[in-house]
Amino acid sequence: MSSPAIQTTPAAHGEDALTALVALVREDLDACNRQILERMQSPVALIPQLAAHLIAAGGKRLRPLLTLAAARMCGYRGDRHVRLAACVEFIHTATLLHDDVVDESDLRRGRASANAVFGNQASVLVGDFLFARSFELMVEDGSLEVLRILCSASATIAEGEVLQLVIQNDTSSTEAQYLDVIEGKTAALFAAATRVGAVVAGRPVSEAEALDSYGRNLGVAFQLVDDALDYSAEQEKLGKTVGDDFREGKITLPVLLAFSRGDEEEKAFWRRVLEDRQQEEADLPHALALMQKHRAFADTIARARDYGDRAIAALAGFPDNAEKRALIDVVEFCIDRAR
Amino acid sequence: MSSPAIQTTPAAHGEDALTALVALVREDLDACNRQILERMQSPVALIPQLAAHLIAAGGKRLRPLLTLAAARMCGYRGDRHVRLAACVEFIHTATLLHDDVVDESDLRRGRASANAVFGNQASVLVGDFLFARSFELMVEDGSLEVLRILCSASATIAEGEVLQLVIQNDTSSTEAQYLDVIEGKTAALFAAATRVGAVVAGRPVSEAEALDSYGRNLGVAFQLVDDALDYSAEQEKLGKTVGDDFREGKITLPVLLAFSRGDEEEKAFWRRVLEDRQQEEADLPHALALMQKHRAFADTIARARDYGDRAIAALAGFPDNAEKRALIDVVEFCIDRAR
């Protein structure tokens, strides 16, 4: 099918980077997946059914992979990081379930979303369950420092999501507000996921902060690419629909760039489609054309690459090892999705 | 306005019991309310706005009152219980926000529900925020034992809510399932709220378990009365609408009793209105008449009184003091709401 979306060249290097990371922590990841399956169980059968729809459907397990690799890079030899990686995935899954309710999404990971199959009510409540269960797992781990990191990240995620709701449909939103949104809704969990790697390994605060910085910058880069991809033909290969954000009136960087660089007529267009939500069939192709004209897509990716470079720089103080190289390559994976 | 609901005599003794409890822990409660207001703040203004709509609107603060009184009854002289009481109220508020989304409620505490004013999306996300914030407060408190109790209660609440969703509209649900639902969605937090009172006071496990039993039985009694009140004229005085559960097809004990004691024609009626959700105007009065005929309302209250007695019995081992007497009287308050 011919798509009106921005054409990009297929990813190559990126997928390999993720494959290499998975291979490196294969045993840990298998153990983590077992923990996830075991601990999402409940006497209330609908809970594992709904959770399995999303969790067992796959997903990249990117966040738990980051926890596993960060801990190993720090020289950790125990197995606490496996349970904490499962916590991170539970928090992520809970937010996905609630996001899909909030966004009224029908699709997730290329199949019907949980709310589309099981209803909004069950999605809200099973999200709550997974959230609570992740805290139970942390309590079992027993580190107050880890609890502090992941509880704080959870509150920040919710703040980012609420802010996103507040600035939605508002073309006068600023880039600073947009960055606050993605630092909250996405980067906070990436930062926490990598930071706990240093904490379980008992490394000094400076290393925990370096890994926090790596995760936070990677998370921002990841979300920037995600927001660009929403306007790219690559999106369809990821099992998503081009223009979802556009239809919801979500204010993302590609939109903010095209808006700020547009003339009055173009600004009026953006206000009509995103603020008034008056959209016709020809509007998405027109929006894509404006983005190309103003290099909004390319500059969003360039910005992502910038954050990716900062993520890599944050790892400078760590000794060279296979996990460090894998974490550097993951940055490429996150950005190359848009190529 | 003349109501078709079951007429009951007004509460008297009950309100006094709550007033006495409030007077007894007045300073602690004021400190707790300050904590609540302070810790629901966020740079994202919609969060305190929405939270204030529900929290500042009042509510009885029953659960935090239980934590405060239980700690004092156990001889606790510090102030950790104040923060933990705020945690309990945050968890309760988060579940109320999500409940109202799940139930599509328009009313809460006699005014428009948060979801009706701010939308479902904001209610889901601010609920998540309050939930995460409550865990942050627990981490600040620093007791893994308290964290274990409240995390476990939170997971159990979600399980109870999901089970309620599963058996909703199903008249073949059993009393055992119904009890599982209310032990999860209501009694688990009551039990945790009172148990942490013993834990902060450093009392032995036997006393923590006794307070757990007090809270759990009180919580079941409380919910039984709530479910009876849904069919009582008293409901309107509480700022709620008679028959909400009926319209949603919620399976509660009054319904299960009337159904199981009904003849085939009555069973067909219950199936039509609750399973098929085919309801006409005359159906609620008819349902109320069937409940009176089969003593479903009175027997639900009797059952609540039974659980209330067990709650009081659980306090037997504690030395007599003002807080213990107040906790005993609170049982009366919870049950007398239905008189």
Automatic annotation (TrEMBL), chains A, B:
Cited InterPro entries: Isoprenoid_synthase_dom_sf, Polyprenyl_synt, Polyprenyl_synt_CS
Keywords from the UniProt entry: Magnesium, Metal-binding, Transferase
SUPFAM superfamilies: Terpenoid synthases
Organism superkingdom: Bacteria
Cofactor: Mg(2+)
PROSITE patterns, per the entry: POLYPRENYL_SYNTHASE_1
Similarity comment text for this entry: Belongs to the FPP/GGPP synthase family.
The protein's name: Polyprenyl synthetase family protein
Species for this entry: Pseudoroseomonas ludipueritiae
